[in-house]
Amino acid sequence: MASEFEVCFPADEYEDGTRLALQSLDAVDAVEEELSFFRPESVVSRINRLAAAGPVAVEPQMFALLKQASDLCAETGGAYDITSAPLWQAWGFARRAGQIPSAAELAQAQSCVGGHRLELDPGRQTVRFRQPGMKISLGSIGKGYALDVCSERLLESGMTNFLIHGGQSSVLAHGVNRRSDWAIGVCHPHHIGERLATVRLRNRALGTSSSQFQSFRHEGRRYGHILDPRTGQPAEGVLSVTVTAPTAAMADALSTAFYVLGPERSLEYCRRYPDVSMFMVCPARVGEKVEIVTVGFRADELVMVTR
Asked: pLDDT by residue (tens digit) across 85-124?
């Protein structure tokens, strides 16, 4: 998943903590083997090869993840959509070589995108594509899912106080760190090392989406890698989104969805689902400062950095 995964825990509480942490991290490789878009032997690659020809049976855990992604697609009006892989490829982000697709290329890709074209059969635990040329990618939910699996292993081993992160943008925290909730910094999307706020986590997960590190410029315009599946174009109007949710998979997926939806629609979603919190950074209308939109945090969960 092109990220470094790490487990943090109070060493004085767990004599065997290092061994247990390393064992939990073994799950990351197993998840990568299942979810990778690029490995020919992965479950996702098998689905992409075969699902247009007929239903493809998958294991219950994979089916549950696909069902969660499908539900989120419906809840966000298509702003979150794992079938947007053809757009990702057309824009060159799949090979980290951004490009402007032609109108024909974009139209072809768009014709293969849409949650309504993904058929899931709960009874048979199968996946089918209703349109030839469709492909799915779980990159927007995979790191979070891996953290959830690692967390389950740690809890089963008896560890209850720990923090796991994948590439620092996906975080899951259980219990406390030396009698205090785990503190996670929210960075400024334009100024590396500058912190905007601190989020305190306990038995919750955090996911951040930003196009800061994956973008390209063409004729003076910047194009980010987070695409709006509904239009086929890079999402605009948001600099970064940090979401907290009950699971890391949900936090990761919703941070992507909110980046696409923008502040007003994201606020509506959070008001419908009070177990989700959001910290969104948008360009300011005047000057170089940013505008921050927050919702759902308790007073002791979010600490703004004062200047």
From this structure: 999 999 998 888 889 999 999 999 999 999 999 999 999 9
* Per-residue burial over 198-214, b = 16 or more CB atoms within 10 Å of its CB, e = otherwise: ebbbeebbbbbbbbeee
Measuring CA to CA, how many Å separate 297 from each of 31, 74, 201, 242, 243? Answer: 31, 25, 11, 12, 10
**What's the rounded Cα separation, in Å, for the pair 225 and 256?**
11
- The pTM score is 0.94
Does domain 165-304 sit in CATH 3.10.520.10? yes
CA-CA-CA-CA dihedral for 281, 5, 247, 24, to nearest 10: -170
Tokens of 11: 């060493």
Cα-based torsion angle of the residue sequence 7, 13, 19, 23 in order, rounded to the nearest 10 degrees: -50
Count Cβ neighbours within 10 Å for each residue of 295-306 and write b for 16 or more, e otherwise: bbbeeebbeeee
CA distance 118 to 147: 26
| Domains in the chain: boundaries | 165-304
CA 34 to chain centre: 17
State the residue for tokens 């219990």. Answer: 175
